[in-house]
Amino acid sequence: MKLLFTDLEQSETTYPLIDDGWFPVEELNLVDGPEGLTKAALTGSSEAMVKGQVRCTILSSCDRCCTEVKLDLAADFVYICMIGRKEYERGRQETECRQEDYNKLYLNEPVIDLGELYREQLYLSIPSQVLCDDLCRGLCQVCGKDMNQTACECEQIDQESPFAVLRQLKDR
Fold first, then answer.
1. Which terminus of the chain, N or C, has less C-beta within 10 A?
2. Using CA atoms, how far apart are residues 30 and 60, in angstroms rounded to an integer?
3. Using CA atoms, how far apart are residues 136 and 68, in angstroms rounded to an integer?
4. Please, what is the Cα angle at 100 between 97 and 105, to 5 degrees?
5. How, if at all, do strands 47-61 and 111-113 pair?
6. pLDDT of 35-85, one tens digit each?
């Protein structure tokens, strides 16, 4: 869904989440959702504020034992959308990004693509490591059995480490 600046008003208007092809179905295994809503309002002649939230449940796999895990993704966002990327880039020098600039979007044209914002927020809400349980023991490095379900009798592989010499001292 795309919002035109000309369609926005000074007061906040609520827009329900409409899946018009923005959701990355092929990349994320959707179980439930997506659901959410967005509020948008003009704050100036070339500036608008967009507040929203998006939620869904996807299937992923545990990074340690490869079992299937349901992930509840949720993201709340607030952006100040400004027209005039060219003006921003023209006066831009290498400067440090300040915290108040983190939520600013500079647009080439007066159109806000909500689908792009939703997609970005969902990707950012995926944890960097997915675990079925905090105490997940993973797979055996030798036989590949799930260590959470059964214990295996395999000899564990000693990884070469620069600290192996210290282990020899400890064993004496």
1. C
2. 10
3. 13
4. 80
5. unpaired
6. 888 888 888 878 899 999 999 999 999 999 999 999 999 999 999 998 876
C-beta of residue 11 within 8 angstroms of C-beta of residue 105: no
The label of the residue with tokens 């909500």 reads 114
Is residue 55 within 8 A of residue 77, CB to CB? The reply is no
Contacts of 17 (CB under 8 A, 6+ apart): 34, 35, 36, 37, 38, 54, 114, 118
> Which 3 state secondary structure label does DSSP give 41?
strand
- Of the candidates 139, 145, 141, the one whose C-alpha atom is nearest the C-alpha of residue 157 is 141
Pinpoint the alpha helices (H) of 9-163. 85-90, 114-125
Please state, in angstroms and rounded to a whole number, the distance separating the CA atoms of residues 116 and 165. Answer: 53
165 by DSSP, 3-state: which? helix
DSSP at 118:
H
pLDDT in tens, 121-157: 999 999 999 999 999 999 988 888 999 998 888 876 6
Pull the structure tokens for residue 134: 């905090």
DSSP 3-state assignment of 168? helix
Query: In this structure, are residues 8 and 41 in contact, taking their beta carbons and an 8 Å threshold?
Result: yes
